[in-house]
Amino acid sequence: MKKIDICLSPDLIHQYDLGSTVVVVIDVLRATSSITTGIAHGVRAIRPVETLGECRELKLQGHIGAAERGGKKVGGFDLGNSPFSFMNPELEDTKIAMTTTNGTITLKKSKGALQIIIGSFLNFSALLTYLERLPCNVLLHCAGWKGKINLEDTLFAGAVVFGLKQMFEYASDVPVMAANLYRHYKDNLKSALEDSSHVRRLLDLGLEKDIEFCLKFDAYKVIPVYKGEYITKMKLSDMLL
Ligand code: 3SL
């Protein structure tokens, strides 16, 4: 039977065998929500990079530059990390270079997987439908915050495990823990997240609308896939079915 596991922080990823596994990268507040939004709104490709320097260099080479640190847009770049800024029709068919505090590092650290895809509440059902049909193991890779585990990504990973029911065998106790957490909070996710340190950080920055948007189920049907250097919209030929 195929197995599912959850890596709660990119600092723990060395403990997992990625080679034969589809990895779902999760940073619901806000990197994977912004990526999903951009791809759904017609951005051609998003290149995640770890440093501001790499992002600046790619901007000079013609990419749109998106950079966030500590929740704030970094000066000198075109975009920060708000999903609303990724809806701009002027971004259609463009290439974006993107660096964020945790999300883009988590993407990079997922390299070596059979396939890397992007998960968020915004594309929840599309993601679940794909995972259900996959013939291989799945790892949900949560971005957390600077190496620490966070509530919102763990809850999302729990929602995925809960939604997949008994289709996968649990490879460790973490899927059980996360699914139980989600089961407990599922009817009131917003109030559950009032205790999240990152929610408080974003609220301090006046980003309540971003939080509300990122918690919407199924705004989009796309599954962004990270291949080579770029994230693009998954095509039929990308599907490992
Ligand atoms: O850490 C990240 O990658 C970001 O998603 C954090 S923030 O929501 O932009 O603050």
Report on the structure:
The chain has 241 residues and is of the alpha/beta class. The protein has a domain at 3-30 and 101-236: Alpha-Beta Complex (putative 2-phosphosulfolactate phosphatase), CATH 3.90.1560. It is 34% helix and 20% strand. The protein is built from 9 helices and 11 strands. It has helices at 31-40, 52-60, 103-109, 124-133, 151-164, 174-185, 189-192, 197-204, 208-214, and strands at 3-7, 21-26, 45-48, 64-69, 72-73, 95-99, 115-119, 137-142, 169-170, 224-227, 230-233. The strands form 2 sheets. It has a 7-stranded mixed sheet, with helices on both faces. A 4-stranded mixed sheet has the order 3-6-4-5.
SSE map:
Layout: E1 3-7, E2 21-26, H1 31-40, E3 45-48, H2 52-60, E4 64-69, E5 72-73, E6 95-99, H3 103-109, E7 115-119, H4 124-133, E8 137-142, H5 151-164, E9 169-170, H6 174-185, H7 189-192, H8 197-204, H9 208-214, E10 224-227, E11 230-233
Parallel strand pairs: 1-8, 1-9, 2-7, 2-8, 3-6, 4-6
Antiparallel strand pairs: 4-5, 7-10, 10-11
(2R)-3-sulfolactic acid binds at residues 27, 29-31, 68, 71, 81, 100-103, 143, 202.
As a percent range, the share of helical residues equals 25-40%
Which architecture of the domain at 3-30 and 101-236 per CATH?
Alpha-Beta Complex
Identify the bound ligands: (2R)-3-sulfolactic acid
The count of helical stretches stands at 9
Can you summarize the main beta sheet? 7 strands, mixed
Please report the distance between the alpha carbons of the first and last residues.
16 Å
CATH topology group of the domain at 3-30 and 101-236: putative 2-phosphosulfolactate phosphatase
Which superfamily, in CATH terms, is the homologous superfamily of the domain at 3-30 and 101-236?
A: ComB-like
Could you give the count of β-strands?
A: 11
Q: Identify low-pLDDT runs.
A: none
Structural class: alpha/beta
The main sheet orders its strands as: 9-1-8-2-7-10-11
- Rg for CA atoms: 16 Å
- Overall average pLDDT: 97
Question: How would the global form be characterised?
Answer: globular
SSE topology string: EEHEHEEEHEHEHEHHHHEE
Beta-strand portion reads 15-25%
**The CATH class of the domain at 3-30 and 101-236:** Alpha Beta
